[in-house]
Design brief:
ATP Synthase, domain 1; 2 domains; 2 helices; 10 strands; about 45% strand
Length: about 130
Amino acid sequence: MAETFWVEIVAADRRVWEGDAISVVARTTEGDIGVLARHEPMIAPLIPSTSEITTPDGRREIVVVDGGFLSVTPTRVALISPSAQLAHEISLAEAEAELRTAQKALEAGDTTEENHRHFQRASAQVKAVHLIA
């Protein structure tokens, strides 16, 4: 059996998920990173994206983070974000509407950082719902 470690996903307003895991995959500003037990300690900035936690019983927990930080020690991983949602908490219809709004704004020339984050967040929400379907 694979070695486990403790994972916490914390948003500004709540603890979103916590438990034992055998792996975590998260998207940093440098790209995707996979974490297993005994990983080298590190801190990395996250971008709005989906992250995946695999539990010891083989379940996948899919979570959408709105940026923040990934903190890794050999026995613990924390994803700390201003906002985070588990995939099963997301309404696909609402996420698709948000994605259309952000896409239209980009096509109309709104290339602000805020709109890019809006687009990334909505894209991640849609992807998360499809990953659990």
